[in-house]
């Protein structure tokens, strides 16, 4: 579930997303230590919002890199 109060994050770069996820994970640890369960849930939703976009971006980069390879002339199984 994505956090409803996070604005448009599509303009962030992959590095900015990774940094934000790292910062939120640190805040989650602090919230967990304080025993505030409701805050933990809110931070987890925020992490999920950033993580889903980050994963999507990494998959797109992987497809671009691996899509350029054509191994059809390397292995002939016919």
How much of the residues is beta strand, in percent? under 5%
Global geometry: elongated
Summarize model confidence as the mean pLDDT.
87
* Separation, N- and C-terminal Cα atoms: 47 Å
Gyration radius, rounded: 18 Å
pLDDT < 50 runs, ≥5 residues: none
How many distinct beta strands? Answer: 0
Order of helices and strands: HH
Tally of DSSP helical segments: 2
Structural class, from secondary structure content? mainly alpha
- Portion of residues within helices: 55-70%
Report on the biggest sheet: none
SSE diagram, text form:
Layout: H1 14-34, H2 37-67
Characterise the protein shown here.
There is one protein chain. With 78 residues, the protein is mostly helical. It has a domain at 14-64. It has two helices and no strands. The longest helix has 31 residues, at 37-67. The N and C termini lie far apart (47 Å).
Short description:
The protein is an all-alpha fold and 78 residues long. It is built from two helices and no strands.
Spell out the key features of this protein.
78 residues; mainly alpha; 2 helices; 67% helix; elongated
